[in-house]
């Protein structure tokens, strides 16, 4: 029997909230994907592949489920996966991490990054972000009570501007977040730039949060391009949380599994927060990933795989009035729209999705003040036929 209500139904009222993120709405990725579905547009907006992962990876996860590996794993992640990650970091980057005390498996890079920030940022601490930057960083810092210090990447090239970074450092700076290969611009930090950052941070107590989710997507090795992980630079590694995502590496963005590598003292604090915000991450997926990682070929072949897509997409775009920006890594291609339209970025993306049938992301979404430089981002992690269909439509512009 339900309890008799003593108050009239009309008096029922949800208490008012003071928003913790008053300026935040639904993420642009969700908004543009919904619009793309509604308008039946080719979705080159949100960054995710439209092709499936290697069936061997699905088999490895299925096998783990069938072997009954379905209960809580250890809090930091299953040891075989942590060992596989530590071995990869040592082989590729010469970074030596102890799998027991320095690697933690996370629910994607998103949970890794917010957990790092909650673990290290106290109210009033400053955190430097280099804009444009991934859209979760700023709200994460605000949730921790930190102060966001926005430093622009160099307009046009999106390269780090060390004079500006130096000028932004203060006694209150707790951390700086970097991201290479870079979302949205596809810029890749050079070794010289990593060394410059190392020098600048050397006299400070500033922590480094290095978002390396596109680590295996760096193109043009023939021109000397490669990923320079913070793990490769001892004086950066000593102060760094290195973050990556299996979602990007293995074409399984929906699985939401990633990792953080950091010195033991940093990992200890990280895990204090991790254990109370997610506690543990999907067990059979972790075992499946560990088995799949035994062969390095899938991630070592990503540069060739994605650079072929980049080149296909760029050669098609060359027939449009978009001005192509460089794409050195990641799976994104940015274009300048100023010859094509008088609209601002966000209006243009709405129009392009609705009228031309191709979804893109405005770069303004990656700036705290919505800065509009007439540039939009396309994702080329798509089947060739999808890219060709988008190019046919874009050729109308
Ligand atoms: N950082 C960057 C730069 C990204 O592009 C993404 C992808 N959405 C993430 C973090 C989050 O990764 P995940 O899907 O593993 O949470
Ligand atoms: N990282 C992806 C992108 O930049 C999207 C992830 C998300 O939807 N939050 O498009």
Describe what this molecule looks like in 3D.
The protein is an alpha/beta fold and 397 residues long. The protein folds into two domains: 23-47 and 300-394, Aspartate Aminotransferase, domain 1, CATH 3.90.1150.10; 55-294, 3-Layer(aba) Sandwich (Aspartate Aminotransferase, domain 2). 38% of the residues lie in helices and 14% in strands. The chain contains 15 helices and 13 strands. It has helices spanning 28-39, 55-66, 79-93, 108-120, 137-143, 162-168, 191-201, 234-237, 246-249, 264-277, 283-292, 297-300, 302-317, 345-356, 384-394; strands at residues 42-43, 103-106, 126-131, 147-152, 173-179, 207-211, 240-245, 258-261, 323-324, 332-336, 358-359, 361-362, 375-379. Strands 2-8-7-6-5-3-4 form a seven-stranded mixed β-sheet, with helices on both faces. The chain has a four-stranded antiparallel β-sheet with strand order 9-10-13-12. β3, α5 and β4 form a beta-alpha-beta unit. α1 runs parallel beside α14 (345-356), α3 runs parallel beside α11 and α4 (108-120) packs across α10 (264-277). It is globular and about 55 Å long. It starts with 27 loop residues before the first helix and ends with a helix. The structure holds 4'-deoxy-4'-aminopyridoxal-5'-phosphate and glutamine.
Main attributes of the structure:
397 residues; 7-stranded mixed sheet; globular; Aspartate Aminotransferase, domain 1; alpha/beta; binds 4'-deoxy-4'-aminopyridoxal-5'-phosphate; binds glutamine; Aspartate Aminotransferase, domain 2
Task: Give me the secondary-structure topology.
Layout: H1 28-39, E1 42-43, H2 55-66, H3 79-93, E2 103-106, H4 108-120, E3 126-131, H5 137-143, E4 147-152, H6 162-168, E5 173-179, H7 191-201, E6 207-211, H8 234-237, E7 240-245, H9 246-249, E8 258-261, H10 264-277, H11 283-292, H12 297-300, H13 302-317, E9 323-324, E10 332-336, H14 345-356, E11 358-359, E12 361-362, E13 375-379, H15 384-394
Parallel strand pairs: 1-11, 3-4, 3-5, 5-6, 6-7
Antiparallel strand pairs: 2-8, 7-8, 9-10, 10-13, 12-13
The chain binds 4'-deoxy-4'-aminopyridoxal-5'-phosphate and glutamine (GLN).
């Amino acid at each position: 029997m339900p309890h008799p209500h003593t108050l009239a139904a009309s008096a029922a009222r949800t208490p008012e909230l003071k928003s913790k993120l008053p300026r935040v709405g639904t993420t642009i990725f969700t908004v543009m994907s919904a619009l793309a579905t509604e308008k039946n547009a080719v979705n080159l907006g949100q960054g995710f592949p439209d092709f499936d992962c290697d069936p061997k990876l699905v088999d490895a996860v299925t096998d783990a489920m069938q072997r009954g590996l379905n209960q809580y794993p250890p809090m930091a992640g299953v040891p075989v996966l942590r060992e596989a990650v530590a071995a990869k970091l040592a082989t590729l980057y010469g970074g030596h991490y102890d799998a027991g005390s320095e690697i933690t498996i996370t629910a994607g890079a998103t949970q890794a990054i917010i957990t790092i920030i909650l673990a290290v940022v106290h109210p009033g601490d400053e955190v430097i972000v280099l804009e444009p930057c991934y859209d979760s960083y700023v709200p994460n810092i605000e949730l921790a009570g930190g102060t966001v210090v926005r430093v622009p990447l160099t307009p046009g090239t999106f390269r780090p501007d060390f004079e500006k970074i130096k000028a932004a450092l203060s006694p209150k700076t707790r951390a700086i977040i970097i991201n290479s290969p870079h979302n949205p611009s596809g810029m890749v930090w050079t070794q010289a730039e990593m060394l410059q950052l190392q020098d600048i941070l050397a006299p400070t107590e500033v922590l480094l949060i290095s978002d390396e989710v596109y680590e295996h997507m760096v193109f043009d090795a023939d021109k000397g391009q490669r990923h320079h992980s913070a793990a490769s630079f001892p004086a950066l590694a000593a102060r760094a949380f290195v973050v990556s995502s299996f979602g990007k590496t293995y074409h399984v963005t929906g699985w939401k599994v990633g990792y953080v590598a950091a010195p033991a003292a940093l990992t200890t604090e990280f895990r204090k927060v991790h254990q109370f915000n997610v506690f543990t991450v999907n067990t059979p997926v972790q075992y499946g990933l560990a088995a799949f990682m035994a062969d390095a070929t899938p991630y070592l072949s990503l540069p060739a795989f994605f650079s072929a897509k980049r080149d296909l997409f760029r050669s098609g775009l060359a027939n449009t009035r978009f001005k192509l920006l460089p794409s050195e890594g990641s799976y994104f291609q940015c274009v300048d729209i100023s010859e094509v339209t008088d609209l601002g970025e966000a209006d243009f993306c709405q129009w392009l999705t609705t009228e031309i049938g191709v979804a893109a992301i405005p770069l303004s979404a990656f700036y705290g003040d919505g800065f509009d430089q007439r540039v939009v981002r396309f994702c080329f992690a798509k089947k060739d036929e999808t890219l060709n269909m988008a190019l046919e439509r874009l050729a109308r512009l």
